[in-house]
Amino acid sequence: MKIFVTLALFLILLSCKSDDNVNQNNPFLIDPLVNLQLDLSLPQYNPLNFPGNSIIINAQGIKGIVVYNIDNNQYVALDLTDPNHAPNDCSRMTIEGIEATCPCPEDENKYNIITGQHTTQPDLYPMQRYRAVRSGSVVTITN
User: Fold this and answer.
1) Residues 47-55: contacts with CB within 8 Å, 24+ apart?
2) Cα 78 from Cα 65, distance rounded (Å)
3) What is the mean pLDDT of residues 87-111?
4) In 10 A of CB 62, how many CB atoms?
5) How far is 75 from 13, CA to CA, in rounded Å?
6) Exposed, middle or buried, 91 (CB in 10 Å: 0-12/13-18/19+)?
7) With CB atoms 3.0 to 4.6 Å apart as the test, which of 2, 38, 68, 90 could cross-link to 139 if both were Cys?
């Protein structure tokens, strides 16, 4: 009986897949070191105190990071590089509301910044996600 339970637990653990690895085979992305602490009491991060707001952090990630407040407990942080082509001069996406748009004329990809998914073609790579955890008045962004 112990062997059966141990084997069952082992198989369950093997079948689990982390969402963090969804872009692991993406040939266009690197995994830059990201380790930020955003103190929401500082004026530059004040918009993140209100659900539905986002800020952009320019000097982090591949092409910058957008941080979005879902409900004051859940935050998302996504890289602004379009994950479906190689980083280049036009691959930094712009944000309008909850949509990230790639300005490259050859693709004009659009993504939802809450889910990171492409808005019309879900089989394309999603935006690169970073961990975003709020503790007190600090949101920590890491990978």
Assistant:
1) 48/75, 48/139, 54/95, 54/113
2) 5
3) 93
4) 20
5) 27
6) buried
7) 38
Q: CA 141 from chain center: how many Å?
A: 10
> Amino acid identity, residue 25?
N
What is the Cα–Cα distance from 117 to 127, expressed in whole angstroms?
7
Confidence of residue 22 (pLDDT cuts 50, 70, 90): low
Per DSSP, the three-state class of 77 is strand
Amino acid 135 reads S
Collapse the DSSP code of 10 into the 3-class scheme (helix H, G, I; strand E, B; otherwise coil) and give the result: helix
Give the amino acid at 40: L
Q: How far apart are CA 141 and CA 143, in angstroms?
A: 7
Report all structural domains of the chain as residue ranges with CATH numbers, in order of start: 31-142 (2.102.10.10)
> Which residue do the tokens 């979005």 mark?
68
Q: What is the pTM of this model?
A: 0.82
How do 35-39 and 99-101 pair as beta strands?
Answer: unpaired
In this predicted structure, what is the pLDDT of residue 106? 84
* Cα 36 to Cα 143: distance, rounded to the nearest angstrom: 10
